[in-house]
């Protein structure tokens, strides 16, 4: 696994953990952010490489600072 | 300015400040990261929306944690 892939995988695990701690399904979460559910699934599995603005959107929805997701 | 644009602008200012503190030109920096100089310029001006893996590459080159750039 490349360093970049590791970064995406670690980010995805963090997002999943925070989302689950709120008791939200991927669908609930996708609705809050305005991103498609399958995209959230891809992020959580580390298959997607989110942009800075998507990282900010996700952080805002989870009520954490963007830096806490990295 | 949208929240997203603000996020990119703040990121760009932070990158420029750290790069300049090392005395590197955009060209020096671009060579270290393996990203084109004009792309670095766009990031520093907040015109580009970098991905998570690009944020990691930039942080590694600057010797900081990715979270410190956000």
Short recap of the structure:
Chain A contains 4 helices and no strands.
State the shape of chain A.
globular
Strand content of chain A: under 5%
The span between the termini of chain A is 18 Å
Q: Quick one: biggest sheet of chain A?
A: none
Instruction: Tell me which oligomeric state these chains represent.
Output: homodimer
Order of helix and strand elements from N to C terminus of chain A: HHHH
Unreliable residue stretches of chain A: none
Number of strands of chain A: 0
Q: Mean pLDDT of chain A, rounded to whole units?
A: 93
Radius of gyration of chain A: 11 Å
Kindly report the greatest chain-chain contact and the residue count on each side. Answer: A-B, 18 and 18 residues
Note the total helix count of chain A: 4
Q: Structural class given helices, strands, pairing of chain A? A: mainly alpha
Helicity of chain A, in percent? Answer: 55-70%
């Amino acid at each position: 696994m490349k360093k970049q892939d590791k970064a995406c995988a670690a980010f995805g695990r963090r997002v999943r953990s925070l989302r689950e701690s709120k008791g939200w399904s991927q669908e609930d979460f996708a609705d809050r952010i305005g991103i498609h559910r399958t995209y959230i699934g891809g992020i959580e599995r580390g298959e997607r490489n989110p942009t800075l603005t998507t990282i900010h959107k996700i952080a805002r929805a989870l009520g954490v600072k963007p830096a806490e997701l990295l």
